[in-house]
Design a protein that fits this description.
Elements: E1 5-10, H1 14-25, E2 30-36, H2 40-50, E3 54-56, H3 59-63, E4 70-73, H4 80-89, E5 93-96, H5 104-117, E6 121-123, H6 131-141, E7 148-158, H7 175-191, E8 197-204, E9 211-220, E10 223-230, E11 232-243, E12 247-250, E13 262-267, E14 278-282, H8 287-301, H9 309-328
Parallel strand pairs: 1-2, 1-4, 2-3, 4-5, 5-6, 7-10
Antiparallel strand pairs: 7-11, 8-9, 9-10, 11-12, 12-13, 13-14
Helix pairs in contact: 1-8, 4-5, 5-9, 7-9
């Protein structure tokens, strides 16, 4: 395709250099044309390593490049809003890593920027457009497991490096922002509505002051969702979706490997040992390639991106409520529909 969207990347974060950029370079709609770092040598090294034509020693230089149409923002969490707004002010569409912001109040100005400029701004929840999740949500809507009333999620990894950005509270680190956000997002997708209230327990690290073990219960109008996320336990992830006539299990709900099939298990409950389970296998695909191409396609065709900005702000509202509940020891309601 000779009508690819020309992208610039802000920063040389690992997720960008190791996962997202190579994946987008394999896409049909996206072309990585420039990369920037506050350290020019780092930008040049990444550009040489990845075959990116231009390297800049500042983010401002990249944003002033008239060739760049869209920006991928994988900067540290506390810089997401600032540089998303600056990119939009420079006339660039923005795909921003999650979380879109650190608070609802911080995220709300993005709505005004999007509406004023007409540019597309999306949070990079790559899971939403992965075929395994498209199929999982389809099975639920097709009533294959009956009325879903219970969702259980788990996501953990073990990172004790106090210098790692995920363990720096002032930069938006901690498990809930990094991985718990996915478990909230999945529950909202599955129930197709917002939780009315949440209650939580959070264990924080004494040195980093980040949340390292978080469990939450979310009360939805038609059911309940419970999850645990941790940054100090053995790596594991799973989603269970329980209806009154069946169950769906998503084996690797977030970090779906790009080089091997994904599996979703559909169980009608007729054999508790699992012999009745139907295994749905999905051909290998890189969800970062899919994400980049669909966002680029929305730019070229002037359609809505897969994840509206409003959905990201609703997700942030639940994150805030979970933090509040851990402090108050009470049920807390997400603050929705705030005035812009």
């Amino acid at each position: 395709m000779n009508n690819r969207v020309k992208w610039g990347v802000l920063g040389v974060a690992n997720i960008a250099v190791k996962k997202v950029i190579p994946a987008m370079q394999r896409g049909e709609w996206s072309e990585i044309s420039a990369i920037a770092s506050r350290d020019l040598a780092k930008a040049q090294h990444a550009s040489q390593q990845l075959g990116i034509p231009r390297a800049y020693g500042s983010y401002e230089e990249l944003l002033s490049d008239p060739d760049i149409e869209a920006v991928y923002n994988p900067l540290p969490n506390h810089l997401h809003v600032e540089w998303t707004i600056k990119a939009a002010a420079a006339g660039k569409h923005v795909l921003c890593e999650k979380p879109i912001a650190l608070t609802v109040a911080e995220a709300l100005p993005l709505l005004s920027v999007r509406d004023r400029t007409g540019l597309k701004i999306e949070e990079a929840f790559m899971v939403r457009t992965n075929p395994q999740w498209i199929k999982t949500l389809s099975l639920i809507r097709e009533d294959r497991v009956g009325e879903v009333q219970s969702v259980m999620g788990y996501f953990s990894y073990n990172n004790r490096d106090v210098q790692n950005i995920r363990n720096k509270r002032e930069l938006g680190g901690g498990g809930l922002m990094d991985i718990g956000c996915y478990l909230i997002y999945f529950s909202r997708l599955i129930f197709n509505t917002e939780p009315t209230r949440v209650v939580s327990l959070i264990q924080s690290d004494a040195e980093t002051r980040t949340d390292v073990l978080t469990s939450a219960l979310m009360d939805f109008p038609t059911g309940q969702s419970i999850f645990t996320c941790s940054t100090r336990l053995t790596p594991y992830q799973r989603i269970q979706i329980i209806g009154d006539r069946g169950r769906i299990e998503v084996q690797i709900p977030v970090n779906a490997p790009p080089d091997q099939p994904c599996r979703v298990f559909l169980d009608d409950g007729s054999d508790i040992s699992g012999r009745s389970i139907e295994v749905l296998e999905f051909a290998p695909c890189d969800q970062y390639t899919v994400q980049g191409d669909l966002f680029s396609q929305s730019i070229r065709e002037d359609t809505e991106p897969p994840i509206p900005l409003e959905e990201s702000i609703k997700n942030m509202a639940v994150i805030e409520a979970i933090f509040r509940s851990a402090s108050s020891g009470k049920w807390e309601a997400p603050l929705q529909n705030r005035e812009r």
